């Protein structure tokens, strides 16, 4: 993904693709922080204005952002209008009304978290920046002048939030930082919101969970504490099955990966393609007929922490029977568990292969059950002699199916020929780097063979499984 300076976008980590049955596969891309880096913390200190005029401007806009924070978090829908400029577009107005509506207290059918997302922290504030000030577009400035505005500013803004709180005791995530720009206008001593990056003719501000209509939330007890499942107005049966599937799926991933991950998750179900597209950035990864995608804000590699991970289900998940949905869920949770120990450019044959192995474990009796296309290729005498490259996973049709199935079969071979503990060790070594030399060393350290010997053994195993 191309990281935009001064902006944050949710980063696509993986997508489970429905190819044959529930052939799963993911397109990876580099995560970004609010400042375009890939790890480490972010500052909470705003820049100091250079003169009294800028100081006054910053203080006025800070009051506006404080009012916006309080209005949204209290669910005070009627007050939204008093914060918005007459020049604000209907879409911009609707975004804030929807957000406030989703923060309103309500009675949950399940009686947990009163049906709303729970937050440890949530606030809008001015963001530190060293970039040159962006000018208000001439057409927007003209409308503001006509309305009697005495000043206008493209303000750098951060949304900082973390899920959690007293009514969601298990959800205790690090703070997510979303950096954007707001166009604001001054009238006397008061400032009003005019628009965001869309008003600047730039890419729209990323959509947050609470900015889509009809959000409801339920909490599910999992091994690491409360997990969260969100849904929207027309989300179908897939959402109803997830609370029952999630605890066992977390346990299945933990059985392979160990308990070094959070052992909880935030799942998001969507009812139409627009909702899914709003919540998932597709740059750098082919989603196709996906059933789910995992997104995240950033990875702090030194602390082995991934921030803002969400498993987002597409409307295609609606058609999945519970056993198939369970495979998808376990696959995605494997990515969640492994994210902080997986290099940004790790080869897909290892990241997808192991996720597929964990997702499908116990669901098949023969190679043909899990990898029908690969079985036919081997049966025809074309046993693979090389691991699939990343490009093969992004192709449509049989090419991508064979890539995913080949990746799964390599993981299955290692678990069968060696054991799962060595498969995990293999993953930790190979997925930690994109350097083939270091990968070769990791293969030998984990399995005691060279890459060529591994591939030869894999081919013989495939022939034996088919024969």
Averaged pLDDT = 86
Number of strands: 12
Beta-strand share of residues = 15-25%
Number of helices: 15
Instruction: Kindly state the percentage of residues in helix.
Output: 25-40%
Rg for CA atoms: 24 Å
Here the CATH topology of one domain equals Nuclear Transport Factor 2, Chain: A
Architecture per CATH nomenclature, i.e. the level-2 architecture of one domain: Roll
Terminal residue distance:
43 Å
- What strand line-up does the widest sheet have? 1-9-12-8-7-6
Task: Give unreliable regions as ranges.
Answer: 1-9, 17-25, 27-46, 109-113
Q: What about the largest sheet?
A: 6 strands, mixed
Shape: elongated
Q: Could you spell the SSE succession in H and E letters? A: EHHHEHEEEEEHEHEEEEHHHHHHHHH
Organism: Gordonia namibiensis NBRC 108229
Protein name: Peptidase MA-like domain-containing protein
Describe the fold and architecture:
It comes from Gordonia namibiensis NBRC 108229. Residues 36-48 have a biased composition (Low complexity). This is Peptidase MA-like domain-containing protein. Residues 27-55 are annotated as: Disordered. Among the domains are: 52-211, Nuclear Transport Factor 2, Chain: A; 342-467, no CATH class. The model is unreliable at 1-9, 17-25, 27-46 and 109-113 (pLDDT under 50). The strands form three sheets. Strands 1-9-12-8-7-6 form a six-stranded mixed sheet, with helices on one face. The longest helix has 22 residues, at 52-73. It is of the alpha+beta class and 467 residues long. It is built from 15 helices and twelve strands. The chain has helices at 52-73, 77-83, 90-103, 138-146, 237-257, 273-279, 322-338, 348-360, 367-370, 372-379, 390-393, 398-417, 420-430, 436-447, 451-466; strands spanning 11-17, 119-126, 151-163, 176-187, 190-195, 216-222, 225-231, 266-269, 290-296, 298-300, 305-307, 310-313.
